Predict the structure.
Amino acid sequence: MQLEYKLKIENPTNHLARVIITGKRPANERYLTFFLPSWSPGSYLMREYARNVRWFKFFDASGKQLYFEQIHKGQWKLDFDHPEFGKCDSEFSVEYEIYCHELTVRTSHIDESHAFIHGPSVFMGVLEHNLLNPTLELEFPPLWSKVSTGLKDISEKREVFKYEAPDYDLFIDAPIEIGCHETDGFMVNDKPHELAFYGPLIKHKENIKADIKTIVEHVSELMGGMPYEEKYTFITHFLPGKFGGLEHCNSTALHFDSLKMNERKGYVRWLELVAHEYFHTWNVKRIRPKELGPFDYVNEGLTRMHWLTEGLTSFMDQLLVLRAGLVTLPEYAEMMKDNFNAYFSIPGKKFHSLEDSSFNAWIKLYRPDENSKNSSISYYLKGGLVFFALNILLYEKKSGINDLLSKLWDRYLENPKEGMEASEVYSMIEEVGDSEIRKKFENMIQTTEEVDYEELCSKMGFEFVWTENESSSWLGTNCSFKGDRIVIDNVVLDSPAYKSGLNAGDEILAIDGMRVLKDRYKDLPKILNVDTSYSFTISRLDVLHNIDVIPGKTPRKLSEVKIKDEGLAARTLLGRQ
């Protein structure tokens, strides 16, 4: 089935876009059901994009309105042969208006400065029909001069913006940036790579273009070439407080805090983000679990394998910027220290394996609440650490992560239409390592048993340095401030606050009858004694309570991942014996 799409943005200040879809009625079919996806590949939450549809209409070629019925939260059923509304034998059109005013990498945003169109949130498909070469024409205010997208440009005239994709999946996969944004680019392997930057960026001394090019060169060389045929597009929104990314087959959409570029740690995080999303071009968009493609855009795509999609990618993004020479070995060790401290601080690792965390992404990782860290673990964080551990184990067998990547990519090339099962990955690990390594890896994926990362790091020349703070007290609360008032956001499992009965949502008013406000709360570790009972006055649902709390010792913290054997560490990470 062939469809032509037109996106019209007439008044950006009202944040609305009109979509017009034209096509021909399929022979012998009375009904067609148009749908708007409920979620986006790479972002595992039911976002219910249809909530933004303001109206929907169905016409024949003469402009006569025909009958349709909304049959589901995001589905509209067209009737081509209704006894009262009339019959349509050939060309038809569907029109709807959609509100776009949420600027994330997984939603669409239109205002007077630009339009960012995220395909799944805007463009409808047809249930049980494959679309062949859908086209898209863009109409937008004349003051806007640029369009950046991974879609193929088929415009015949300069003033017409028309694009094409091979099918519906790839059509909605390519985000679109429209406006007067800054553009640049570079060539690698005779393929253009476009850079599109929207938003204000603080003056800085970094060479963003050169560093992105370095990442592209390094990753494409590692993976043996580029899987996209024509070009790759990096769309970045630089705005204060923003962070995130979403992968696509020949492009990515990135968000980054524009005020962080002059902080070395902030800039390194930017490089990791670029490497992460670019590596997804291979891992996830091609190498993938069987459940993630072809896509069911109506129902959740449940998988137990996000340890592969995001865990492997989270390990690789930091490794890639090290291997590309964009960070030093001490900086990499500092990254690992932060990873380990984050992991050690999450009690939920006792309850959810990586398989559990993956399967429950739709209701846990993407819907965090006050108890999330007490009940589950991020497959990004733990998954990255598990592949870090795997690389060490493989190095001992004179192998490494490169050998696994090679096998994963070969498997994709052999059967690109069908995703993988976990057993295939486990078999590859046995091939590049041995049966014992496979057993250890499966255990790390399938169980909640603790991994001795300190011992593993010692095998690659890293040493853990711990800080003990005997004198500093600890409650186990994370709080936010409403002016000077203190409100508990969450309570750490089995902490002193947890055992005493303090709850998320409680406002701390006083301790032993003395008022506590924001500035004094920050000094509580020095003010309160360990193993001493204090009476906390709190407001819970606007009712006052007194709760006895006994602070404990501040848990030890990893203060440094020390490079004890630089040569061994470098060889292990760079994949050299």
Observations:
- The first helix runs from residue 168 to 173.
- Residues 25 and 89 are 6 Å apart (CA to CA).
- DSSP finds 16 helices and 30 strands in the chain.
- The two ends are 54 Å apart (CA to CA).
